[in-house]
Amino acid sequence: MIEVREARLEDLDAIVSLMDQLKRATSQHDAVTTAGVRTSLQAMLRFPEIYRNYLAVENDGVVGVVSLLLYKTFLHAGGTALINELVVAEKDRGRGIGRKLVEAAIAAAREQGMDEIEVGTEVDNLIARGFYKVVGFAREYVLLGRDL
Ligand SMILES: CC(C)(COP(=O)(O)OP(=O)(O)OC[C@H]1O[C@@H](n2cnc3c(N)ncnc32)[C@H](O)[C@@H]1OP(=O)(O)O)[C@@H](O)C(=O)NCCC(=O)NCCS
């Protein structure tokens, strides 16, 4: 059975491995480093009202992660939840785990009083775009990016 629970610092290696797989899926070739992910995870764990990371776990093994940002804007009094990263282990895709993680993210966002939930994906990530459509997300914005 697949359970969803909040991530802890002890889950670092599993999260690093999933981030590696996310990079592969999105054709990003720079390496994921354990030190970099540790720094981010430690910072996120200090601010649980802003960052939530949920893991899908099966038989004590981590099979997916969703990383959620909860933020305020002037036009959304309750706030907006943003799915920053979502990845299911390559061998476990197509088993309903991504949907489960999105449902956990939505439940957490509702519980925190957020008005909406959103996600950005690369234009050419057709698998993710197909997936998000099936789980109820509609194309509303165009997100523009620039590397710093
Ligand atoms: C996108 C991703 C998270 C989906 O996870 P998953 O566990 O394979 O998806 P699920 O099995 O939960 O699928 C849920 C639904 O989406 C549908 N779906 C999945 N991929 C789809 C696609 N490419 N096109 C259309 N529908 C799709 C499934 O058929 C399923 O529908 P159903 O519940 O009606 O049967 C997974 O493919 C992944 O990790 N990709 C690499 C990382 C990535 O690109 N992340 C998103 C960018 S942050």
Topology of helices and strands:
Elements: E1 2-6, H1 12-25, H2 34-46, E2 51-58, E3 61-73, E4 76-88, H3 97-111, E5 116-119, H4 126-134
The structure holds coenzyme A (COA).
Coenzyme A is lined by residues 22, 25-26, 85-88, 93-99, 121, 125, 127-128, 130-131, 134-135.
Spatially, the strands of the biggest sheet line up as 1-2-3-4-5
Beta-strand portion reads 25-35%
What's the order of the H and E elements? EHHEEEHEH
The CATH superfamily bears the name Gcn5-related N-acetyltransferase (GNAT)
Number of helices: 4
Unreliable spans? none
The distinct ligands, each listed once, are: coenzyme A
Question: Kindly state the mean pLDDT as a whole number?
Answer: 96
Tally of domains: 1
Helix content: 25-40%
CATH architecture: 3-Layer(aba) Sandwich
Global morphology: globular
CATH class: Alpha Beta
Kindly provide the radius of gyration, computed on alpha-carbon positions and rounded to a whole number of angstroms. Answer: 15 Å
The CATH topology label is Aminopeptidase
What is this structure, in a nutshell?
The protein is an alpha+beta fold and 148 residues long. Helices cover 34% and strands 29% of the residues. Coenzyme A is lined by residues 22, 25-26, 85-88, 93-99, 121, 125, 127-128, 130-131, 134-135.
